[in-house]
Amino acid sequence: MRSRFADAFDIPETFPPVERVLIGSDRTVWVKLAGPGGTATWLVFDDRARPLGLVNFPRSLNLVRARRSDVLGVSTGPDNEPIILQYRLTKP
């Protein structure tokens, strides 16, 4: 039974290391890829794991809420005070 279940999924041989996963309020799935640098890449999938696209944010941004149209996050300002940021997302 387990092999039938596993065969139903197309699992890639390799996948980049993941730093975080967030379920969006619109049932999207946001996957933050681990890596160096000041920019973080997030892969965005619909509720059936179909890719919708990718988004880059400052690595210091901690996403709190996400959906296809916008994200809300918290970062720190120059004096280490918390800053709430909202990004509106549009198609290129």
Order of helices and strands: HEEEEEEE
Q: How many extended strands?
A: 7
Strand order of the largest sheet: 1-2-3-4
**Strand percentage, roughly?**
over 45%
What are the low-pLDDT stretches, counting only 5+ consecutive residues below 50? none
Which class do the helix and strand fractions yield? mainly beta
Helix fraction bin: under 10%
How much is the radius of gyration in Å? 16 Å
Tell me, what's the shape? globular
Amino-to-carboxy terminus distance: 44 Å
Major sheet details: 4 strands, antiparallel
Structure, explained:
With 92 residues, the chain is mostly beta strands. 7% of the residues lie in helices and 49% in strands. The chain contains 1 helix and 7 strands; from the N terminus they run αβββββββ. The chain has one helix at residues 2-7, and strands at 18-23, 29-33, 39-45, 51-58, 62-66, 70-76, 82-88. Strand 3 and strand 4 form a beta hairpin. The model has no long low-confidence stretch (mean pLDDT 88).
List keywords for this structure.
globular; single chain; mainly beta; three-stranded antiparallel beta sheet; 92 residues; four-stranded antiparallel beta sheet
Give a summary of the structure in a few sentences:
With 92 residues, the chain is mainly beta. 7% of the residues lie in helices and 49% in strands.
Secondary structure layout:
Layout lengths: L1 H6 L10 E6 L5 E5 L5 E7 L5 E8 L3 E5 L3 E7 L5 E7 L4
Antiparallel strand pairs: 1-2, 2-3, 3-4, 5-6, 6-7
